[in-house]
Amino acid sequence: MNTYSTREADINREWILVDAAGQTLGRLAARIATILRGKHKPIFAPHLDTGDFVIVVNAAKIRVTGRKPEAKLYYRHSGYPGGLKSVSLGLLMEQNPTRVIEKAVRGMLPRNKLGDAMARKLKVYAGPEHPHQAQMPKKVEDK
Asked: What is the pTM of this model?
């Protein structure tokens, strides 16, 4: 019996369209990360990027539970002393709702070059319009 090993030539990438309207942030991000990694395919290999491209529309209409809009904070540091900045989830949703989904999904991907390549396949848009009609994306069903 031979062991099957996925090769780059075996990988067939598709475009998947996800509508984020009314979906919970963490559950949505977990589903997107699974598709980006390729874990939904039988040819998944942890050392290869076997995932598909993901287009997320209506990012401004995601749902969060509890007091997360006020309590959840996102941090960044300028690299200088005293350069730690923070912004709440509610404020970030007003300013740039696409970044909320990007950061949630990025936190669920590997922290290496492979994870960076997977994150580049994520396209997030605040409204229902996207410029990827030519790729003929397949709409994913809500679970």
From this structure: 0.93
